[in-house]
Amino acid sequence: MNLVIQSPAPLSADHHKTLVALSRGSHAQIVDAHAIRIADVDEGQRADLDVYCGTHALDYAFVEAGRHLRDFGLVAMDMDSTLITIECIDEIADYCGLKAEVAAITEAAMRGEIQDFNESLTRRVALLKGLDASALERVYEERLRLSPGAEQMLAGAKAAGLKTLLVSGGFTFFTEKLKTRLGLDFTHANTLEIVDGKLTGQVSGEIVNADVKARTLRETCAQLGIDPARAIAMGDGSNDLKMMAAAGLSVAFRAKPVVREAASVGFNYVGLDGLLRLF
Questions:
Q1: What pLDDT score was predicted for residue 116?
Q2: Structural domains present in the chain
Q3: What parts of the chain have a pLDDT lower than 70?
């Protein structure tokens, strides 16, 4: 196995020898100013690496030697707090004075404390009843920002021949705009019901929960003619876990503890473009 160490700031040479010793690796190779790759490491050293990397705000990942990004065929991403920095439903709720109440439910659901995602989404959407639909455009224009490294990661994935899937427990209003803006291949999300320019407090059709996210990844792989083992899944919340488990490589991005523990790789400090440095 190789060990890839990444830093949001230029990685100091002072770390190189220490990290080689901690991982019991053979040598360090400089990837770029922000990353090194250490060959022939001992995976049993995770505990020491956790402490050192946590102390110095570094991300580490064990990656099978000889793997390339082009070995994969799909990168599937969650939207809220993964591809983008906000939780759209929380920001929509701000326009009707209910952000704190809705955000509390969102946070509990993402930590896995509310097991029924359908119920948590239904409760939150119901609080939006009567809100003018123009609030969605305002959230997109005024508050939605891409996560650090998002565009670089997508460009690198596309250059390596991967297709892109945005699958979200959020809303089609935002996923469709992002599909056009970023040139994504596939999207799947919930549809907010709007009547006479107002939100009804309901969603139309099947709710995109953890099971649907995983099914969407598998169905997209089938459509592309690839095994799910050739998919990369990126997410931050507990409703991403089944999708991440279905993929060959899972990336926890600024994620809740339950997701970090389950994922192949965790990015707590670097941007989404950290994916490109793994291979």
A1: 87
A2: 1-66 (3.30.70)
A3: none
**pTM for the full predicted model:** 0.94
pLDDT digit string (tens) for 218-231? 999 999 999 999 99
Active site residues: 78, 80
Phi, psi values for residue 28, rounded to 5°: -110, 135
For residue range 147-163, what is the model confidence (pLDDT) as tens digits? Answer: 999 999 999 999 999 99
Sheet containing 265-267: order of strands: 198-204, 186-195, 163-171, 74-77, 231-235, 249-253, 265-267
What is the predicted pLDDT for the residue at 108? 87
Residue 21: CB atoms within 10 Å: 11
Strand partners, 166: 77, 187
Residue 110 is encoded by which pair of tokens? 């993402």
pLDDT score recorded for residue 110: 83
